[in-house]
Amino acid sequence: MEQNPLFLEDFYKKYTNDLPSWLPEGVIDVDLALLHRLGILKHHTETKDHFSLTRYFHVSESLEKITLINEQFVIWIVPEKVDDVPTTYTLVCLNRPKGPQLELAFCTWGIYNSSRLVLRVLEKFLFEIQETEDLLTSLKKEARH
To answer: Which residues, other chains included, contact 19 with Cβ-Cβ below 8 Å and sequence gap of 6+?
Structure first.
């Protein structure tokens, strides 16, 4: 997996310059319904699965964004002001040999725009993506036999 900052920056620009083409379903807005669906409104308990997904990231910070990188994921957390409202965009990619593969993006603002909530939502999405990847790997193995 490529972790060269310039290589990753090229992908970041490619995705953010034309997000609707890369994510036709759009950016996910974090709201009360999403928090309920993800189970975030319930009492938060750390599980081993979730802990292992978010524990080991290399962090790179610039004026524009925070980049989190590990063997599985490349994540860009981008704070902005939209109509004078502090907003955070989070782009989640699988870390593939040919470069980051954009999986989803979500946006928080207003009462939902706290670092704690951004990280909890991110953790839930990483867990869902990892479950899907594990299932796909399992299906590929079964198809070979």
So the answer is: 27, 105
